[in-house]
Fold this sequence. Notes:
Layout: H1 17-32, E1 34-39, E2 45-49, H2 60-63, H3 74-90, E3 94-102, E4 105-115, E5 122-128, H4 130-183, H5 190-225, E6 236-237, H6 239-254, E7 259-262, E8 270-271, H7 274-290, E9 301-309, E10 312-319, H8 326-329, H9 349-359, E11 363-369, E12 373-381
Parallel strand pairs: 7-9
Antiparallel strand pairs: 1-2, 1-5, 3-4, 4-5, 6-8, 9-10, 10-12, 11-12
Amino acid sequence: MSASEVPHPGGPPPPSPYEALEELLRVVLGLTDSLVFEFDAEGRYLSAWTPSDSLLVLPRDAFLGRHISEVMDPQTAALTLESIQRVLARGQPDRFEYSVEVEGGRRWFSADAMQVPLRPGVAFLVRDITRQKTLELSLVQADRLAALGTLAAGVAHEVNNPLGYISSNLNFIEEGLAEFRQALAGEPGLARLARTLEECAEALAEARQGTTRIHNVVGDLKTFARGEDTGPEEEWADVRRALEMSIKMAMPELRHRARVVWQPAEAPRVRGSESRLGQVFLNLLLNAAQAIPEGAPGENTVEAHLKAEDGKVVVEIRDTGHGIPPENLKRIFEPFFTTRPVGEGTGLGLAICHSLIIAMREKLTVESTVGQGTCFRVVLPTT
């Protein structure tokens, strides 16, 4: 033993290799604002490495050895247990997001899970993504407002058309009622009165259809524009309804550019936000519309396909537009990347679609050929 290795008499013993590695891990985690937890197969905390207790629900020493359901809220505990089961069953990493109340308020976290070699446990690297989540929600709202602005003129057209024939039909009914009152004065007019009453009934039916159409358009607009406080894991979404709503809202942009091919199909519900799925589909449909020039709707198509396959729900949005060059195909999901002229696009639509899909543990892919068109594919797990 060299002199440098001899401990000072009465001093603390040198740290063990395990303690040295643990201290190094704490330093690294402190630099990254990350946490590491290890669970057994049943969901009990085996160990934890944290730079401090400020991002924990309970102090570290208070939850070691306890089951996660005794520490975290039921939803977060369920997500963690499901992730542990998936990792152990498949032997592959897993990821999910959650939010909890800690010291200083509610924080958002991203958890990456991986099986621990030579041990029966699963380790989680947990990162604080509160800032990212706050920015993401701000971008989602900004994109929602931008999309609403794009649709404003079309929605006004959709509302004004039924209002026009409602007004015309109400005038006709008013004149018919006046004729009805006049015919009551003498029997010879009864036959003509019967025809007038029948026409009045038809006019009333058309007016009723018009008001229903207005109600549906405004309802769809309100659904799309409504902000959400709940996370994407807290509800079950009807994919067909979300897609149909998006097609109706995008129709004013689509009808002057292409024929819309949509054959409704039944599909199981998926875990996620129906409103957010609607926003994804609407952005993809608007993107398809903007890839096709106006003036030749009979020569172009935008197709929406919905199907269930291999325990998943698949939605495809295809267009016959100008396509995306290979050098741009790798960047289309980057925020603020756009090939449109200045003032005609924010570059946020596809980036937010991708972010929303990833947050719901779903998948968004794209295939495109220049001059032939593009296909976006959304894969939604049913469990």
